[in-house]
User: Which sequence fits this backbone?
């Protein structure tokens, strides 16, 4: 009897090298028009793609503006730009980057605040999205740099208040390191996608991100208040709305994150408790603090306004949904739609597994649900292709999914056991 061959074991990767300082040191922050002209000229004279990143003050400020812009290009090195000190006037930078490919990680997070500065790429490579398309389980910048390049980045200031001035030296090191290896990572991810035959898919995805429209404002953003599910009646919902709107106005005027003005938990507690006096209000958690005591009359005014609303001006407890209901209710409401969704999900899972793709990158879950809930009258492949295209699916996604979705849309619900 032959001895069993031992399973092949992938050799251990070498320990990643901790990167604590940029190779060329941390450049001075560009804060004057003269320094910006010099930096822009250097970037324009460089070659190849440009690594781009931004730092915001999410959780500290109301706005999502960029408080630091980091760039790096072969032949130019790293540039750190303070757009606030420059009054947002970055025209030299816009000119220097006009015909370059930009490399970003999780570009959808940075492009809006760059667009506020009138900085928009003509060509984009997103290393995070590349990692997803490559089928990698973890796609943070640090993880990909370690996997593809063998370096480990110091990560510790991503959630810092980048509106602070002056910026601490160790924060600037962190910011410079975020673009230090981004071009090298782009090179490796490009090669990996090419090896997997997914490069054309990736370029389509990058273009979709680059050209994405800003999300439309929510009709009732106050309904996103954390913990609002505990509010059970329309009058209390009106109190949440009133407190939320007052808080939002204060936050916008002072450019402070709303949660730092008043936490969501306090909004919900006040709506439920409906305090009518300052002593009742300050007896609630959070409202007893010095800052909230100073605003007690403001919060009480918001609650009084909600209390005084006529019945026909109260918010509805269950607003109409934009789109199909939750899938767990489909079997009761529309068994045929439930059968279509079940068949479609199984088909999508098989395709995703075959091509080593995350399901959400193969086709947006919301698009799949809408297609199954309200399919085209003609469920042929051409009609399905048209519906997918109309809903924003990319050509590579349509090519992989339209045929099997056409079949899934013709699925019939299983007959009940009593039939």
Assistant:
């Amino acid at each position: 009897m032959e001895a069993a061959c031992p399973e092949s074991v992938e050799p251990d990767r070498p320990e990643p090298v901790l990167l604590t300082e940029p190779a060329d040191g941390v450049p001075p922050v560009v804060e004057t028009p003269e320094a910006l002209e010099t930096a822009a000229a250097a970037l324009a004279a460089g070659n190849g793609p440009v690594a781009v990143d931004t730092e915001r003050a999410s959780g500290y400020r109301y706005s999502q503006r960029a408080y630091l812009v980091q760039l790096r290009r072969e032949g130019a090195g790293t540039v750190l730009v303070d757009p606030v000190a420059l009054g947002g006037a970055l025209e030299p930078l816009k000119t220097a980057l006009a015909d370059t490919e930009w490399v970003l990680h999780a570009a959808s997070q940075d492009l809006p605040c760059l667009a506020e500065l009138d900085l928009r790429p003509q060509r984009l490579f997103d290393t995070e999205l590349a990692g997803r398309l490559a089928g990698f389980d973890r796609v943070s910048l640090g993880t990909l740099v370690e996997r593809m390049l063998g370096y480990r980045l110091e990560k510790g200031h991503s959630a810092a208040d980048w509106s602070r001035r002056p910026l601490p030296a160790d924060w600037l090191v962190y910011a410079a390191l975020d673009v230090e290896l981004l071009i090298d990572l782009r090179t490796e991810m490009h090669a990996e996608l090419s090896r997997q035959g997914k490069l054309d898919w990736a370029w389509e995805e990058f273009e979709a991100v680059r050209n994405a429209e800003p999300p439309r404002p929510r009709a009732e953003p106050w309904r996103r208040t954390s913990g609002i599910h505990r509010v059970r009646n329309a009058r209390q919902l009106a109190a949440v709305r009133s407190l939320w709107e007052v808080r939002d106005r204060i936050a916008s005027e002072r450019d402070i994150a709303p949660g730092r003005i008043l936490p969501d938990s306090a909004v919900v507690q006040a709506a439920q408790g409906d305090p009518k006096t300052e002593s009742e209000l300050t007896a609630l958690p959070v409202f007893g603090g010095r800052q909230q005591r100073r605003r007690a009359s403001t919060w009480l005014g918001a609650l009084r306004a909600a209390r005084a609303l006529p019945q026909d001006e109260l918010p509805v407890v269950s607003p109409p949904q934009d789109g199909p209901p939750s899938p767990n209710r489909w079997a009761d409401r529309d068994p045929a739609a439930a059968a279509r969704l079940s068949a479609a999900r199984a088909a999508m899972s098989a395709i995703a597994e075959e091509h080593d793709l995350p399901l959400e990158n193969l086709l947006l879950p919301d698009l799949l649900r809408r297609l199954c809930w309200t399919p085209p009258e003609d469920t042929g492949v051409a009609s399905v292709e048209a519906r997918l295209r109309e809903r924003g699916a990319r050509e590579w996604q349509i090519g992989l999914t339209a045929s099997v979705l056409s079949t899934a849309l013709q699925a019939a619900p299983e007959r009940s056991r009593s039939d």
Notes: Residues 327-408 form a domain with the DNA polymerase; domain 1 fold (CATH 1.10.150.80). The first strand starts at residue 17 and ends at 19.
